[in-house]
């Protein structure tokens, strides 16, 4: 039953074979060997999913994203589970947490059904805070190939999961959107009648809610997250004015704070964190006489000094992009990703992967994109950092071939060697994509 599952999933199975309170002998198999289900586990496996988002750790294939708060075991006493303050009977709290940190976060929904203490540890987000402190992070890819519909993919277990549908608003549904993951939240930025709006998906509640608005709402901005914060810079306001302003989002209290202004106004730009600093790439800016111009420079924001520094030619070059503003305006913002503080970019026109040489400040071609990484001038293709690897999500350009592929490249292995992580029938156009690390 554990084929394709991480070896520590055996720990989860053991949690469901909970002994009585008088028993003190606990053994957690780390060998990854399979064993027979006991009666409690059999009942769990046969239990039907009753609510959207409830996920069984024993089911494979495509599932709904799960969360502790959506479990139907709200009484915390089903199937012989304990409501005591101890996390695992017969084991001290530190050792219990150490065990839980080694479990996949995909299993936390089921673990939360064992006892009230475990459920509180998970649904409050405390377990994810401890994971961040310990550096025990999993990187899941969240993406949307259908309007108002999102999916998650766990590269470790190669499991697909569906998120609940976003709130149904026709204006928001068809508007351009940006997305960003920070902490255990997925933020989706878009437009409703008369104003910009942010919808927030919480991993803890497996639900959507309206997020707090920025001080200066915008679209077409650069963004990136770094631990429990995120930075957004540039973009356009509701009147179409290109901005040089920036804001920081704090995940813990869900607040926005204004940052110093950039040196240049820009929209349709991209952002990353690298070496603890925030970088903005390319985009379209404003030249003399308020005429629009293509920007090849970038800017660096130092979180400690709170100052911006302009960097010439930081934006990655693109093959056959043509000259002039009209050609650049039809292209997607730069497709960039940072792995282990190394910067990579996808050249969609030349189907190439480039790496930024920090010492010489030049972009160097290191390999090619996967064959199925089709796009429309860069639109519809996802190029993201995911832990120690780069993830590319896309499908063929040919009409009628409705599928997408997730390919990965571990950058420490050298030149790009792409490995197929997953493939499924789908619209072969990725509207939005982000990676949640928690």
From TrEMBL:
| Stretches with biased composition (Low complexity) | 67-86
One Pfam family assigned to this protein is Kelch_1
F-box domain: which residues? 98-128
| Keywords linked to the UniProt accession | Kelch repeat, Repeat
Query: Which InterPro entries did the record assign?
Result: F-box/Kelch-repeat (IPR052439), F-box_dom (IPR001810), Kelch-typ_b-propeller (IPR015915), Kelch_1 (IPR006652)
What's the domain of life for this entry?
Eukaryota
Any single GO CC term annotated in Swiss-Prot or TrEMBL for this entry = nucleus
SMART domains for the chain: Kelch
Q: Which Gene3D superfamilies match?
A: Kelch-type beta propeller
Q: Where is the region Disordered?
A: 45-88
Q: What is this protein called?
A: F-box/kelch-repeat protein At1g26930-like
UniProt organism field: Raphanus sativus
What does the record give as the organism's lineage? Eukaryota, Viridiplantae, Streptophyta, Embryophyta, Tracheophyta
